[in-house]
Amino acid sequence: MASHSMDGALLTQLIVELTRARAQLDDVAQVLADPSGLTAARWHVLSAVSGAPAPAAQVARAIGLTRQAVQQTADALEAEGLIQYRANPNHKRAKLIEATAIGRQRLAAVEARQIAWANRLGKRLGRATLQSMSNGVRALMAELSRDSARRADKR
To answer: Which is nearest to 28 in space by CA: 113, 107, 112?
Structure first.
């Protein structure tokens, strides 16, 4: 029976820990969004279009969701008056999603809570730890991209 090498076992442990961290971060995002009447998903979509209007497909790529999930979330945000759809000069059917003034106000409140939370947690973790973790995650993502490209080349 096959077994992990030491490096393979450490990678597997890291993946499990990152998965657990992601779940905790999702919970924190919901706690931060809730006082503004948003879900974490609505916060992320609203944030993605706060700087400039964008079509659902572009938002989906930016935040790692499907276009359909972004479209459903945007429709819910529109129903609450937090975004509006605009004609897209580059595409007849793919409308642009644009934050409204009310949407930007709600987003600003969530972002203020996120900044306070990140500053508190960041201070406790410390700059060196945060830089080391960021470097490690970037290295992992780069290697995952290379591995994905290798698998695609073999198809």
So the answer is: 113
Closest CA to 84 of 75, 71, 93: 75
* Number of domains the chain is built from: 1
Specify if 100 maps to a domain.
yes
Using a cut of 0.85, tell me whether the model's pTM lies above it: yes
Residue 16 lies inside a defined structural domain of this protein: yes
The predicted-structure confidence for 36-47, as pLDDT tens digits, reads as follows 999 999 999 999
Helix 56-63 to helix 67-79 angle (10° resolution) is 110
Structure tokens at 35: 């006082």
Each residue's pLDDT tens digit, 45-57? 999 999 999 999 9
* Dist CA 83 CA 101 (whole Å): 9
